[in-house]
Predict the structure.
Amino acid sequence: MTAFAPPAVAWHGDSDAAAPLVVLLHGRGSNETDIIGLADHLPAGAAYAALRAPIGEGGGYAWFANRGIGRPTAASLAETMAWFRAWLDQVAPPGRPVVPVGFSGGGAFAGGLILSDPSRYAGAGILYATLPFDAGVPTTPDRLAGLPVLVAHGDADNVIPRELLQRTWAYLNGEAGSQTTAVRDPGGHGLSAGVVEATSAWLDRLLGLGQVSA
């Protein structure tokens, strides 16, 4: 098994160890400093942690080795999810609400986390991403039964393969059994103001946090 270094983490928001924890997961080739700024636009009252993915990639970092865009290798995804869970168990013992919110490759990773262990999480945000199909995590009917999930896709996204976006959209709005909030954006592969607002509103409803932070 690969020995990964402990994660670099950028923190924002509430420092109370009992506060709900929203884990922000950056895209492939990016890092934690690129996504922690999103927390400025999300509700106050939560702790926000942006992790650096464990695999170096082109001047940035990645959550898994892949066999094509949006197609993780099962062995790599299993290793990085185990690494993530070891960190999570240190900062968020069972009982503390945890919500992974990921963009692009980070969204695929967030999808892997909830599919592998849906009871561990209070919900998940899958933004401009595919779920990790055919990568060793279950995508059976009702796998995410009752779990709140936000999925946001860009109609002009030409980065994630269209068939994977369609498969993700269909699964989360159908046989997954999740409580899905689905948002379509006319733009491409990038967080729009509308999707950021939708993410903030969804987290507010999910966690009951109140006003958006300044």
Notes: The chain has a mean pLDDT of 95.
